[in-house]
Amino acid sequence: MNTSSQLAMAIALGIAAQQAGAAGFIDDSKATLSLKNLDLSNDIRESQGKVGNSAYSGQVHNWGQAFVLKVQSGYTEGAVGFGLDALGTYAVRLDGGGRVGKAGEDRSPGNLFPTDGGHDADQFGRLGLTGKVRFAKTEVKTGTLIPNLPILVPNDGRLLPQTFEGTQFISKDIDHLTFTGGLIEHAVGRASTNSTGLAVSGGTQQSNKFWFAGGDYAVTKSLTAQYYYANLEDYYTQHFAGLTHIWAIDKSQSFKTDLRFFHTGSDGANGSASGRAEGYKTSGYARTPGEIQNNTWSASFTYALGGHSFMAGHQRVSEGSNFVQLNQGSLVNEGAGGGTTYLITDRLISNFARAGENTSFAQYIYDFAGLGLPGLKFSTIYLNGQNIKATAGGDQNEWERDIALDYVIQEGTFKGVGIGVRNGSFRTNATGASDIDHNRLILTYQLALF
């Protein structure tokens, strides 16, 4: 049992022994059950003639049903309050289970489910506990966590959410400032039951220390400034600065500015040739092979008018290495793949974070409420990445187009049921990548139990 799990258990036992029946602990408790039905298909297109790219690898199709139960207690009474949360997740395979290649063999387990004997498991689930303490306007949690910060974004793109294990505190004791910090020790992937150490894409050695701290400061009601620091021991240190501003032109118009900057450098073993040879490395092109050295900035501007929203922007990744954040996908036989980055360009298929990549993008969203169809939304985005650096020399490029249609039933027997359709196309000549056509059909529902 790791440190955070031990602390969570200690808090739980303390509550039981002390005052589990206290009014706040019971009366402020709540529980929700979320259901998600996902049908996912990938068509990995022909890549012949593209140096370094994988050959045609066929179709991927998976269909599954997920259940996520969240139980959150209130806090015991007194100057220092104690509480306990529980997260139970379960998913069952309805169809699919692999990608059928040209030879007809099942070659792609692990897309929605963990592997069992080389094929997708029929079902899998997890249970996590989180102990929590509150004093004044500060809350400390330890155990199973799902933080969502610029330097740490959980992946929820499949059936079950990615979770982390560690300790996190959130303080709002200073007016207008939300300060967050902590230590993450392990991760559990979106298609896994295994708790693993931490790494980046391309890294094959595990680290168990991801320190982070930072805050969001509301300068005014319309202007928010952010700064965060993160350190994944033996891989990287990362500084993030962000600024968002919303100009409310009138009741029906607004203009949003979103500016982001990351500075990422090597740490510990990643900074030495011997450490990188051991597996503390990043994937893709790097000026010093395997070493993390990157600056990435982005700017996006969104104009909203009634139900219409138009967004355009640009992102630049420096040539030192790919942009990195936590990603356990390269850890052998752990099924921990699937990472998300805090980039505006992180979309359905790609995140446009390769070394040297300059990406321009534009998005359109329409809310049909103005036409008398509340709950129905449409969106589409196009991204074009250029100047990708390659070890073999020369620049490469890629583009992606995504379409999404979502509807939440507003009344009647099926009120609250969400229906989502996703379609994405990705084309590239980047080394190691393939053209992809991607589709998802998603049904969701959330039930408040108490």
Could you explain the architecture of this structure?
- The chain is mainly beta.
- The protein is built from three helices and 21 strands.
- It has one domain: Porin, CATH 2.40.160.10.
- The longest helix has 16 residues.
- The radius of gyration is 23 Å and the shape is globular.
Structurally, the number of domains stands at 1
Shape: globular
* Overall helicity: under 10%
Please mark out the parts with pLDDT under 50 across 5 or more consecutive residues, or reply none: 48-56, 98-107
What percent strand? over 45%
Name given to the CATH architecture: Beta Barrel
The CATH homologous superfamily name equals Porin
- The termini sit apart by 31 Å
By CATH, the topology is Porin
Number of strands: 21
Query: Mean pLDDT, nearest integer?
Result: 90
The largest β sheet comes out as: 18 strands, antiparallel, barrel
- Tally the helices: what do you get? 3
CATH classification, class level = Mainly Beta
Based on secondary structure, the structural category is mainly beta
